[in-house]
Design brief:
alpha/beta, Rossmann fold, pyruvate-formate lyase- activating enzyme, OB fold (Dihydrolipoamide Acetyltransferase, E2P), 3 domains, 6-stranded parallel β-sheet, 5-stranded mixed barrel, globular, binds 5'-deoxyadenosine, binds iron/sulfur cluster
């Protein structure tokens, strides 16, 4: 399949695009290859094997993959190229046909990557976009070096079928990993140095098991792990925001005061056309209950502007929803038609200029609210989890409970929890002054 014959690679480089779940998958693929004796390299052009862990959620993702492949062929060592992730799942055959890559592996099959690489090295075709019922997780090696803030995938896939979205097609139906497997992985992450765990899933708050434990029950079990200081979860769907989870925000101290709850739009007709199955009002009522449980919670969301048929008045409803909520931070995107999704067939494409204008106005409102949220934390005391070194000597960067980046001068080390007072707020980062070192 490849342009030239290949041998078994000795070095590899993984490049992940897109969401945190892809970052998690990319790390797991790197661990798999390291367990086979291959050595990681930071320089894609110096690697024998390059894994492009792709994202398909928005525009130009596929084109980006093809231009990356072109660049690697020009500047690299004629590496073996593996395309993984959602573009591989959605367009595997097209990629093989157009770019003659060596390996194509979907997000549910990447535990087979070493076998596929060996197959490609022997000149055989190496494509695996199966979605097996048995989980890939059992076939992955144990985690080794982990950062203080680690990801843990607990749920994958989506049954919601929002009309604009490829995820139900590329990641498959909603599947929850078993409770015991998650607790074991969490304990091994903590043993390897994690102080904070972010539970990941396309619909993480739909996580459940046969006992009906629910995400809140899982969070309460994680709360009992010694050495784990903080718990987060992302991404949630409004319809799965159950009472128990909202209560956990009031009662579980390790659960950080942050909620990412995408709404996408503020107008009911558009929400219906998106098949979101919640209304503007039901979404706002959920946020009221969350705020009642945890008054200082930082709220986050995702927005799409320019969905087919969106009028100026309907877009104004998105702006008024933003005003009503006062988000701490958000992601916002221009609608992009995804092949195979119902919205891609809808009439009423919004003109590119209107799309740009709406995104600009939305982002101005979101930036205003983010600055206001950050400014309101000045003078507050909180605990930071130190994640990395800052640019200046003696400076470290950490995250506040509200997921803000805070820099401070300290002799604390990566992984320490430090009590600080926030003394200054910029649009994207804050400054803190260390108080006393918190007990580990
Ligand atoms: N066009 C634009 N944005 C999209 N998203 C998902 N699909 C599309 C699309 N076709 C956004 C949604 C989602 C986030 C992960 O990406 O806001 O919540
Ligand atoms: Fe996509 Fe909607 Fe599922 Fe989120 S809930 S992954 S936007 S289909």
């Amino acid at each position: 399949m490849s342009a030239t014959p290949k041998t078994q690679p000795k070095t590899f480089h993984v490049k992940s695009f897109g969401c945190q779940m892809n970052v998690y998958d990319g790390d797991r693929m790197a661990e798999l290859m390291a367990a086979q004796g291959m050595v990681a390299t930071d320089d894609a052009n110096a690697a024998d094997l390059v894994v492009l862990n792709t994202c398909h959620i928005r525009e130009k993702a596929t084109e980006k993959v093809f231009s990356d492949i072109g660049r690697l062929r020009k500047h690299g060592q004629n590496p073996m190229i593996a395309v993984a992730g959602c573009v591989a799942q959605a367009e595997g055959e097209e990629i093989v046909r157009r770019a003659k890559v060596d390996v194509v592996v979907g997000p549910q099959a990447y535990h087979n990557l070493p076998d596929l690489v060996a197959k490609a090295a022997s000149g055989a075709s190496a494509v695996d976009t199966d979605m097996p019922v048995a989980s890939k997780f059992g076939a992955l090696p144990a985690r080794r070096r982990v950062p203080p803030s680690a990801f843990l995938t607990v749920q994958e896939g989506c049954d919601k079928f929002c009309t604009y979205c490829v995820v139900p097609y590329t990641r498959g139906a909603e599947v929850s990993r078993p409770f015991d497997a998650i607790i074991d992985e969490a304990k091994s992450l903590v043993d390897a140095g994690a102080r904070e765990i972010t539970l990941l899933g396309q619909n993480v708050n739909a996580w459940d098991d046969d006992a009906g434990t629910g995400l809140h029950g899982l969070i309460r079990a994680l709360d009992r792990i010694d050495g784990l200081a903080r718990i987060r979860y992302t991404t949630s769907h409004p319809n799965d925001m159950k009472d128990g989870l909202i209560r956990a925000h009031a009662e579980v101290e390790k659960l950080m005061p942050f909620l990412h709850l995408p709404v996408q739009a503020g107008n009911d007709r558009i929400l219906k056309a998106m098949n979101r199955s919640h209304s503007r009002d039901s979404y706002l009522r959920i946020l009221d209950r969350v705020r009642e449980a945890r008054p200082d919670i930082a709220l986050s969301g995702d927005f799409i502007v320019g969905f087919p048929g969106e009028t100026e008045a309907e877009f104004a409803d998105t702006l008024s929803l933003v005003d009503a909520v006062g988000y701490a931070q958000c992601f916002s995107f221009k609608y992009s038609p995804r092949p195979g999704t119902p919205a891609a067939e809808m009439d009423g494409a919004v003109a590119p200029e209107a799309m740009d204008d709406r995104l600009q106005r939305l982002q101005a409102a979101l930036n205003r609210d983010q600055a206001a949220f950050n400014a309101a934390t000045v003078g507050k005391s909180c605990t930071l989890l130190i994640e990395r070194k800052g640019k200046l000597p003696g400076q470290m960067l950490g995250k506040s409970p509200w997921l803000q980046s805070v820099h401070l001068m300290t002799d604390a080390q990566i992984g320490d929890l430090v009590e600080v007072e926030i003394v200054q707020a910029g649009p994207n980062s804050l400054a803190g002054v260390a108080k006393v070192k918190a007990a580990a």
